[in-house]
Amino acid sequence: MPGSPSALLYVFLALPILYLIGFVGFPIAYNLMMSVQEVNLGNITEFIRPFVGLDNYRTVLADESFQKVLVNTLLFVGCNVVAQVGIGLGVALFFAQDFPGAGFMRGLLLCSWMLPALVVGALWKWIFATEYGVANYVLSALHLVGSPIHWLSDPTVALTSVTLANIWFGMPFSMILIAAALTAIPKEHYEAASLDGAGSAARFWYITLPALKPALLAVACLVTIYTMRAFDLIFAMTQGGPLDASNVLPLLSYQFSFKQFDFGVGSAMGSFAFLIVFGVALLYVRTLKQETAS
Questions:
Q1: Contacts of 186 (CB under 8 A, 6+ apart)
Q2: Paired residues of 37 in beta bridges
Q3: What is the pTM of this model?
Q4: 57-293, CATH topology level
Q5: What would the pLDDT profile of 22-59 be if each residue is shown by its tens digit?
Q6: CA–CA separation, 201 and 268 (whole Å)
Q7: Which of 2, 12, 165, 261 lies 20 to 30 Å from 233 when distance is taken between CA atoms?
Q8: In whole angstroms, what is the distance from residue 242 CA to residue 161 CA?
Q9: Domain-wise residue ranges, the chain
Q10: HSE value, Cβ hemisphere, 13 Å, CA-based, for 213
């Protein structure tokens, strides 16, 4: 009957479903449709365009820049996942200790994560500047380098530079999630282990790490998803250069679409990135289900 709780429930369910269809489902479907069409500036406003099948995907796979950027993306994501989760775990364990100012310092660390990625990219671009950057100044002052390092213009160093910047940017997110998981571990386990003579290393290995395993896997999945979306930070620092040394899939898709105006090939590249993120998202959902069931 109208106005009944069951009818109201359907209304509340319909709103998020319509949102997902309109703002998530349609863009994904439209991108997939463009990836099998020939789309350029002449027909971008049209809905019906020449169908080319898998030609755009073949062009992507045969493109040397795509092969290089795919390797860059895997390295960039892999290093970020390992570093952000590992450093985040260490920092979370550090702030779990009872000492004055722990809460304030943890909140201060989160401020970096709240900054816009473009601002963080501009900040690290200044830090890594060859002539007046802080990084080269500190290294020179410590007599660790004899000449300035070209952090952003040297193809052998550029990917490392943007990776370090993104690790600094994303690590507080991992830290706060791991810190929340730490609070769920019963203190009685640590007290019992201490009475049995277990040291801090043994308590970490046999109590903390097994209890955090589902959370660490979930955090790793989230970091993978967020890192696969990295665009603005790299764009602000290097724009993918030099010579695609720091380029990643989202940025390469943008370059093909809005610099070369080959929207079909750009959409195909975006589809590859989407498949990777979708696979990781499925793993994340599965991890959440296992964690809820346990």
A1: none
A2: 51
A3: 0.89
A4: MetI-like fold (1.10.3720)
A5: 888 898 899 999 999 999 888 888 888 999 999 999 99
A6: 48
A7: 261
A8: 12
A9: 57-293
A10: 8
